[in-house]
Amino acid sequence: MTLSDEEIKRLFRIRKTVMQMLRDRNYFVGDFEINMTKEQFLSKYGENMKREDLVINKAMRNNSGDQIYVFFPDEQKVGVKTMKTYTNRMKSENVFRAILVVQQNLTPFARTCINEISSKFHLEVFQEAELLVNIKEHVLVPEHQVLTNEEKKTLLKRYTVKETQVSFENLDIFFLLKLHFDSSVWFYLLLIFYCSYFLGVVGAQLPRIQVSDPIARYYGLKRGQVVKIIRPSETAGRYITYRYVV
Amino acid sequence: MLQPQQSSQNLVFTKQPYIEDVGPRKIKSIQFSMMSESEIMKAAEVQVYLGQYYNSNRVPIQGGLLDPRMGPANKSCSCATCHGGFGDCPGHFGYLNLALPVYNVGYLSTILDILKCICKSCSRILLDEKLCKEYLKKMRSPKMEALRKSDLMKSMVKKCSTMASKAVKCPRCGYINGMVKKAVGVLGIIHDLSKVNENEKECRSAISHTKESKASINAATYILNPVKVLFLFRRMTDEDCELLYLSDRPEKLIVTNIAVPPIAIRPSVIMDGSQSNENDITERLKRIIQANASLRQELLEASTAFKCLAGWDTLQVEVGQYINSDVRGVPFTMQVAKPLSGFVQRLKGKQGRFRGNLSGKRVEYTGRTVISPDPNLKITEVGIPIRMARILTYPERVSHHNIEKLRQCVRNGPDKYPGARMVRYPDGSARQVDRHLEDGDVVLFNRQPSLHRMSIMCHRARIMPWRTLRFNESVCNPYNADFDGDEMNMHVPQTEEARTEALMLMGVQNNLCTPKNGEILVASTQDFLTSSFLITRKDTFYDRAAFSLMCCYLGDGMDLIDLPTPAILKPIELWTGKQVFNVLLRPHANMRVYLNLTVKEKTYSNKLIRTEGDEEIRIDSMCPNDGFVYVRNSELISGQVGKATLGNGNKDGLYSVLLRDYGAHAAAVCMNRLAKLSSRWIGNHGFSIGIDDVQPKEELIDKKKRLLSENYEVCNVKIKEFNEGKLQLKPGCDAAQTLEALITDLLNRIREDAGKACMGGLPWRNSPLIMSQCGSKGSPINISQMVACVGQQSVGGRRAPNGFIDRSLPHFPRKSKAPAAKGFVANSFYSGLTATEFFFHTMGGREGLVDTAVKTADTGYMSRRLIKALEDLSIHYDNSVRNASGCIVQFLYGDDGMDPANMEGKSGDPLNFGRLLMKVEATCPVGENKYLSPEEISEMVRKLAEYGMNSDKCCSEAFIDSLRKFFEGHRDKLENKMKFIEDLSGDKNSDVLEKVVHKTSGITARQLEVFMETCFSRYRLKKIEAGTAIGAIGAQSIGEPGTQMTLKTFHFAGVASMNITQGVPRIKEIINGAKRISTPIITAELECDYNENSARVVKSRIEKTVLGQVAKSIKIVMTSRLSSIVITLDMQTIQDAHLCITADVVKESILQTPRIKLKEQHIKVLDFRKLEIFPPTEKSKIHFELHSLKKVLPMIMVKGIKTVERVVIAEKEKEKKKAKENEEEKKKYRLLVEGLVCLNF
């Protein structure tokens, strides 16, 4: 099955975005790969290219052992079988991260499969439609920088922010009140106090960003990382904020 | 620890909480649970079984609801348990034994959840062993949070109940369980086995012949009564309880014994005579006892089971309503209009225990009466009637400074002012005298609704005769008060600390500005503006006597005043009205207030002076209406002052500038002086309005007549065109909308033109005109409505709707669109409205009233939610904004850490450089100093800015940038002027000319230095303080303006019939986080934005196009052999709309449409514009199939995005103006896309 012109155009754009994404994630990507024109793209992969041909394998800029794969499955819906072939390939080459660029979506089984093997292989799934445009270049998306561990530590120290989540297992409240047995004011006060205490302190004390946030996915962030966001500000010229990935 | 009980006399019963004296202790854990049957009995002192209160001697009956063992019922009794009186006995519980158990309605959902999970035969969990273990492991893991665990429990319930939707066999005992659900209409639980029971069919067929077949159709559903459930729960193992995340035994969820609460919490009030008024809870208990007794009787009689159930149901409902009187499932016969409140009602809502008694309380030392104005009071004062002052007291500590005064107070006693109500000896050493309120005491003053923090401010008391609370009208604004019968509250702080805090934080002087945007809120209003406007008229002159008198009006007659030099010396000395203002601003020479400002008043117009070739010469400061207010070094040079200068809401106004440059005190003192002057002056001068003020002149009447007839004519023409269908349509509108728009436009123009004519014809002496000009009251519209024409009345943003068939009122012909028939009021209020006009006018008026009534509730709830969400946000000492749990919300408040209350610039900039420079130039005269050249300026600015930047790193980049930009502009202006002069003069006397240039826009080194220094030092002061409750301020700043947004009509605004939701509805959407907003619109910028055609192409690609829009015909073709549908496309329309649609495209889109079961082979493309469809069905059904297809086919989407209903091409407004300037005919376009666009675009 050959691809139509329209689809080749799509693939070209997707590949470009993927390359930019890898570069922003600090993988070793050459400028020529990003600035590739459509003609070059065509000549490289031939007129009747397949999606599978586009597979990319890149290494980290500062650590060549840390590699990543980008797969472009042919099927509309990716099943467990394809996943297995990919993971086998990764296992044989000692690569533990991969990006899956799917045309529509995964089958529900494949999705659970990803969760199951997540301890070993880190697989990220993107839809093709999501990668047609590089969201980072949108006017409304400010600059994001991923903090290193040391930077994160100094930040937490600077603002004396607690990171670990506070557990309240020892205060085991089940919301069954003995209302008509004890209606003294003290009882209500205690109740209010504990309720507010409960709802208050959960999670890190920094502003948050979800792992499923498009930008967090673009940078492949994991829970517990911190991003620095620099955005233009009307009042101060520019404003720097930090977000904790949850 | 307590000693072992020796004698009961040692025990003391009090209402004080018991405090064990073992030093501080930490709570390790706390567990909430229900009390079991036996626990209730143990805790109780008495069994209650009689539903009676008192016997005939008014003594509480033993075993009744007011049994003395539960505590004394009134002051005359004593407790039978602890022998305490009414004041000391804390109350004791009783218990009430129910004949049969009932559900506790509060726990009904929990009971249901448990029942869903357990087998209805063996009470084990309906999951197999392995799954149970897995869940148990998760439940027991200490890492998981409580919320997660309850989620887990919910998922378990879901798992069990989804299984039960079919039938689930208990893995332990093999019993087949059905579905468990809440019974409809009654308080109960049903076990539905209808889907399970295979015998049921048999059963049903067996009884189908009997009479009762219909009634017993639900033979397989069993009611799970509380007895059965209790039995099941008792048999549950502890492990299963743990698995279901129950911290206690589930049988406690079912009520078998009711604990009768102590009498202390349900007091019995004895009315005069033999009546007593019982608490709702007591009455409820009485009804429970009655229901219980009758049930018990029924059980004893051992009559039919059917009857017994009725009594049980009654008891269940009674107990349910005892806990929650709003409980659902109460049978219709037992519903009453106003039910007795249950326990839930005691806690819930605004009057409930939490919001009504714990978060908010009634307080002492308060007062409330009607308010009235008093311009002789200072703005920081409040006049308090003597009667109030005699009751409100302040505990003053006695020292040798005040002992004489306090002695006199004590001698006067509580009733003679100034007296004292009490003498206290709190700690032995110093005495306190609760003396009457006196002048200068600190009080808090408040008017509801308290929408922002300026609704409660701190004033100084002034004790006055009469009966109202009085304050200066200048302070009306923050309270939003008027004197049409408003009442206000007053509170007296009782300690010295509270007083100081109140003065510092809530004092009127410290709250002149709103923190919303830094505008001044306390400012002159109404009469003060009118009289200042009249005083500063160009033609007002005063002789020595009059001027001196006016100067005396300013103060209390004690102030030092330097009389300025008269403006006219000969033939007699005359002072101008503007000079009064000079005195007002700076009464004597020792006062170091140098005010500098320029304001453009409402009347301002920079009229064309002359034209020099192409250039139009306009001079800003030369306003023919004297609307340019210029104050230089506290001298009013020009301008007739009005609202812009003296009123609220202007950041460059006189009081704002005074406040920023010379502090709150200077501004407050100035306001006091103006209030005194203007009220006294206007009292002598006189200012009123009469019928002759609103009489139109002949000329105006003629003009109005002409206007009306002309425009009516045009209207008629348009209506005629509309009726004939010839009306030229406006883009995006149909004929009716176009007509409406046109007519509304015309009618509005009548009102406007009539208004203009009316305003032009009014003499300068006209009172309404004066008031509207100075901004004290009324607008030109109000005046022209009185004099010329009231104009169109609108209901819901439209002309009057049809209340009758096809017409608004029966006075008009049907379907009339004429102005008068649709609510146009051609008369003025002076000439009087006709009957129909009057009716239309009331329609419009009522809409306004309804709207205000609705909106107050709406916006009130909105601000409450806002405040509840943000109340805990405050600024910490590291400048971050955090909530109560320490989570950072913003790293630097507002990105720059500035206090919005102190911002001077109009758009929220910290400083208004232009004004500041003007002040520096005026206060720092040039003298002998040399002017700087442009190069020197930029050099110096760079140096100073760097210095400012480095000296302390508090200035934001934006601030430094704006400062730099300001001076660049200044320097460029100077350069340009120099160049112009050089060109003009060549070389001749360039020295002189240069001097002229410098004089107009030059600056000296000293001035620049002072300027920069003030900039930086002021910037530093404008930083927000740590500890500011920024959340509450923010919430109030959004909530308060919300209450002022009136009329739904303003909530929609837009171009080309594309409405955008605005105002309160939009804010609501945002706060609710509504997923589906009412008007989603995307503004799409085009890449080539000057070509209209390309815009059209893009538009057609995005907009949803269905087959029906592009098909010429969709026909059913029947031949003897085959029948099909033939679609013919309308190529003309397709081309006009720039769509690329051919038969192939249509085929594709038909195939892709869901729910149309056509395959590729069923559709045949005949040529590029025709296609034929052969539906694949049997011969017998093909007719129906064809018709259903014909119905569906026009709806099939062939092009565009499904969710986009409409796309409008809009011209860019700003660009249009620019294009005109550049004399380019290119218009720029952009698209407004209506609808939610998904990712796949």
Figure out the total of helices of chain B. 38
Helical coverage of chain A, percent range: 25-40%
What would the CATH topology of the largest domain in chain B be?
DNA Excision Repair, Uvrb, Chain A
CATH homologous superfamily title of the largest domain in chain B: RNA polymerase II, clamp domain
Multimer state: heterodimer
Strand order of the largest sheet of chain B: 12-17-16-19-11-18
Low-confidence stretches of chain A: 165-202
Largest sheet of chain B: 6 strands, mixed
Strand order of the largest sheet of chain A: 1-2-4-6
Calculate the mean pLDDT score of chain A and round it.
78
**Chain-averaged pLDDT of chain B:** 83
Distance, first to last CA of chain A: 42 Å
Q: Please state the overall shape of chain A, judged from the principal axes of the Cα atoms.
A: globular
Q: Evaluate the radius of gyration of chain A.
A: 24 Å
CATH class of the largest domain in chain B: Few Secondary Structures
> N-to-C SSE series of chain A?
HHHEEEHEEHEHEHHEHEE
CATH architecture group name of the largest domain in chain B: Irregular
User: Termini distance of chain B?
Assistant: 75 Å
